[in-house]
Amino acid sequence: MAGEFSASITCGLMLSKRLYYGKGASPAPAVMSRSLSSSTESYLPTAVMAYAMVSEPVMVDNPDVPSYQPYVHGRCDPPALIPLHMHEVSMEVECLMDTAFVTVRGAWRVHCIMAGRRCDCRIAIPMGEQGSLLGVEVDISGSERSYNSKWVSLADSNDTEKVVRSGGGCFLTPHIYTFNIPQVDGGSIVSVKVSWSQKLSYQDGQFCLNVPFSFPAYVIPVGKKIPKREKIQLNVNSGFGTEILIQCTSHPLKELSREVRKLSFMYDEEVPAWSTSDLNFAYTVSANGIFGGVLLQSPPLHDFDEREMFCFYLFPGNKQNRKVFRKEVVFVVDTSESMQGCAIENVKNALLASLSKLSSQDSFNIIAFNNEIHLFSSTMVLATRESILNATEWLSSNLTTDGGTNIMLPLKQAMKLLSDHASESVPFIFLITDGSVEDEREICNVMKSYLASGASVSPRIYTFGIGLYCNHYFLKMLAEIGRGHYDCTYDADNIESQVERLFNTASSVVLANITMDLPENLDSLELFPSHIPDLSFGSPLIVSGRYKGDFQDVIKVKGLTADMSTFVTELKVQNAKDVSFDRILTRMQIDIVTCRAWLSQSKELGEKVAKISLQSSFPSEYTGLILLQTDSGRKAPEPLLVREVYFFLIVHIYIYIDTHTHTL
Q1: Which of 44, 42, 17, 46 is CA-nearest to residue 32?
Q2: Residue 536's beta-bridge partner residues?
Q3: How far apart, in Å, are the Cα atoms of 495 and each of 2, 198, 208, 440, 588?
Q4: Beta strands in 2-44 (DSSP E)
């Protein structure tokens, strides 16, 4: 689909050569960007973009200055996509704890369709890491039409059977969503406002923000007198009670205000050309040792869940001041037939990189599985230079793809290998798969029983999913049960970097078996996640929850350090007056409760997720985003429906189009 999209833009740019802008005026040349993968050149969008969808080439002309080009016979199937000229753009970003909330506003002119003719326009929205579309608004100048998004429950929608399969929204890649606006007049201005959330990456002790904001030269309006103003507003509220230190920024941001945990910046300039780089911003939350806190917040007005909210966080501090646990790791790698090609080769490279980071005191093993299992060794092996060389040779000859997928068997074998682990280590299973199996719920229940064996440090489970066909609910649930973490990728080119990041988190644990001494009078307590993960240098620990009752002023937190001593700290409890962490809690709660609904096959939990989603305007498996058309101040009477899916949890995104005046 991404390749077809890029090919349609190639065709559209060729058609745009028919446009005449007047004497001495010429558009910027089109230059390809490497946005699809390291090996494929493409025209995929690297910022919010708008395109004219052209089925009939004859309609391509300047609406202001007709060129009287020769008649063009034939049609474009699929429609050519001509990138529209952008006349204004602004972006607002709010970084809150480990999440960024992004709003982009832009205006594009349909400069390539002759006066008196109409075309559909396609809007493309690239989002950052784990992006979730939250809302859309569209306004078309010179018409009485506008569009506003709304979240609806799929179970309650009477229109879910009216699916338009040919004209609506889709994901070109897991991070680029597109949808269509029908029948826009040539010369019109299409104004779009889109909002989404995305995760801040955490690496080497710093939070990193990356928002797609790179525009190609061919969207620059032709004409020297057309002003171009670019605006970025960035607000950072770490939520953590320590100073924020700025590490780097891609754009010349001017500091507007500074407080202990809050920063505000602005960039507002008239520019000769639009931004050609993404917005990158990195900062650290400074502290030498382990530190944390507890934030309290009352539920929003009209919240169906009347319980109070809390957020507990811990940071690892500097690496120099803390020892990590010794590692005992079993890599469990899917070698079924579906893993063939780039996927298995990149997994192999990722495993070799992970093995190279083990010290000689660490131990490891590798289990390759399809319908059967193949072990590197019958026992755990110390990570000496010789054993890693042997493992490298073994991977070359045994990581070949064939057969089906049996996940239960290798997980049981991994648990058996780790049953006699050293008391001063954190044993963990590192599962990599691209498949799904019928006994996934049974696997979760079996792993629960293994992990309840009573060992001082039970094995952790880290899961990594590849592609669209593995069950991401299962992998996330398995990681929660095993006090580990989950990650995934839909692009084989990202396997190495993302597996490396997840392994860094798993292998840099500084505090295990973390518990909170919560007040006994708390009622209806619910934690997200229910099993508190370990604290590592690869990721800060953030746990949220709901409760009834009263917190004391200080909460005692305990954990086990790498030298097997007990770590105890007292965290100050504060009311979160200037930190609206309910939005962070909501995303976490939706993800986790959806996985629990899958595991238990609970209709009640599914209904609960739908209520949370509708109340908070966050995506979920049980809700859809509709785009309501308003005509002459009244809502469209008979909407149609377009269905699509989204990144981690499968979310249904719909676009309602007015059939009273238009037919798709």
Answers
A1: 42
A2: 509, 539
A3: 19, 20, 20, 23, 24
A4: 33-37, 40-42
Q: ω before 78 within 30° of 0 (cis)?
A: yes
Instruction: Name the nearest CA neighbour of 434 among 405, 457, 456, 412.
Output: 405
Residues 6+ apart with CB under 8 A from 315: 240, 285, 287, 290, 291, 292, 540, 541
Measured CA to CA, the distance from residue 386 to residue 357 in angstroms comes to: 14
Residue 121: strand pairing partners: 52, 181
Q: What is d(CA 647, CA 100) in angstroms, rounded to the nearest whole number?
A: 16
User: Distance between CA atoms of 532 and 537, rounded to whole angstroms?
Assistant: 16
The one-character DSSP state at 458 is P
Distance (Å, rounded) from C-alpha 609 to C-alpha 602? 11
Which residues lie below 8 Å from residue 363, measured CB to CB, with a gap of 6+? 327, 328, 329, 380, 381, 382, 383, 425
As a whole number of angstroms, the distance between CA 165 and CA 536 comes to: 45
Using 50, 70 and 90 to split pLDDT, how confident is the model at 29? low
Between the CA of residue 355 and those of 386, 463, 646, what are the distances in Å? 12, 17, 33
pTM: 0.89
* Length of the chain measured in residues: 664
> Could you read off the pLDDT of 334-360 as tens digits, one per residue?
999 999 999 999 999 999 999 999 999
